[in-house]
């Protein structure tokens, strides 16, 4: 059995759907003046978030860190609960790791936004126990539309690319969550006595 990647060592940049190409009038992203300093861990935005929360036993427990500009890095260790095929990470969970990392970029912009489109390339299989090193940045902003890309490498932060994504996040108001979320969880999150945690559950500036 061979693990050889038929696309070769460096498959090069993929073709993207036009919806993920910023329009001509898009502008460069602007890091919020109160964004966490480069090197600072962002911490979970919501304890029950499957991507980053500590209260999800089988969640990804992804830890993202602010970098310079509008860029974050993150790590996710693939555990047995994350398998798709025997001993290999489920592709949907790898997409979740990319989505979560890309989503955390909005905290550097201090904008509330949700994923509208997420396009993922699965380049190499990712075995259980592997640490996926993620790196994401916002590339452009056009009105409510936030364009971003991410890669996930294995074997170290400079190792080969295993997954990558391009995404379009859409800015929303906090009402998006209040009007659409299940009332029990909305009430519980709003009742949190910790003001910063209450705000971050909905990704609002504390
Ligand atoms: C730290 C936080 C971590 C979070 C990490 C995880 C993030 C997530 O997974 S969020 C959960 C998954 N996403 C969702 O549930 C979103 C569900 N979708 C929605 O609620 C809506 O479709 C929403 C809000 C995205 C857009 O609806 P709405 O606000 O009415 O905007 P709408 O007017 O349709 O679109 C605005 C613009 O975005 C574009 N757009 C919207 N959706 C898409 C899409 N899927 N593809 C391409 N373009 C899109 C529209 O074409 C429009 O462009 P333009 O301004 O040029 O005409």
TrEMBL record:
Top-level taxon of the source organism: Bacteria
Location in the cell: Cell projection, Ruffle membrane; Cytoplasm; Membrane
EC number from the UniProt entry: 3.1.2.2
Annotated segments matching region Disordered: 1-38
TM regions (residue ranges): none
Reactions listed under catalytic activity: (5Z,8Z,11Z,14Z)-eicosatetraenoyl-CoA + H2O = (5Z,8Z,11Z,14Z)-eicosatetraenoate + CoA + H(+); tetradecanoyl-CoA + H2O = tetradecanoate + CoA + H(+); dodecanoyl-CoA + H2O = dodecanoate + CoA + H(+); (9Z)-octadecenoyl-CoA + H2O = (9Z)-octadecenoate + CoA + H(+)
Membrane topology recorded in Swiss-Prot or TrEMBL: Peripheral membrane protein
InterPro entries given in the database record: HotDog_dom_sf (IPR029069), THEM4/THEM5_acyl-CoA_thioest (IPR052365), Thioestr_dom (IPR006683)
Annotated GO MF terms: hydrolase activity
Compositionally biased intervals (Low complexity): 18-29
Keywords: Apoptosis, Cell membrane, Cell projection, Cytoplasm, Fatty acid metabolism, Hydrolase, Lipid metabolism, Membrane, Transit peptide
Boundaries of every Thioesterase domain copy: 87-149
PANTHER family: ACYL-COENZYME A THIOESTERASE THEM4
Name of the featured protein: Acyl-coenzyme A thioesterase THEM4
């Amino acid at each position: 059995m061979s693990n050889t990647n038929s696309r070769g060592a460096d498959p090069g940049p993929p073709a993207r759907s036009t919806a993920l190409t910023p329009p001509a009038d898009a502008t460069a992203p602007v890091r919020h003046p109160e964004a966490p300093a480069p090197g600072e861990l962002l911490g979970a935005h919501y304890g029950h978030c499957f991507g980053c929360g500590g209260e999800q036993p089988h969640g990804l427990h992804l830890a993202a860190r602010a970098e310079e500009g509008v860029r974050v890095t993150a790590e996710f260790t693939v555990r047995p609960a994350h398998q798709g095929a025997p001993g290999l990470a489920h592709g949907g969970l790898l997409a979740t790791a990319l989505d979560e990392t890309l989503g955390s970029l909005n905290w550097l912009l201090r904008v509330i936004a949700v994923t509208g489109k997420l396009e993922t390339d699965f380049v190499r299989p990712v075995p259980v126990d592997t640490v996926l090193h993620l790196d994401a940045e916002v590339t452009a902003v056009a009105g409510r539309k936030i364009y971003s890309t991410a890669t996930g490498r294995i074997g170290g932060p400079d190792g080969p690319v295993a997954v990558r994504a391009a995404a379009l996040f859409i800015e929303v108001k906090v009402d998006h969550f209040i009007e659409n979320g299940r009332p029990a969880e909305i009430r519980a999150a709003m009742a949190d006595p910790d003001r910063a945690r209450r705000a971050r559950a909905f990704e609002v500036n504390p």
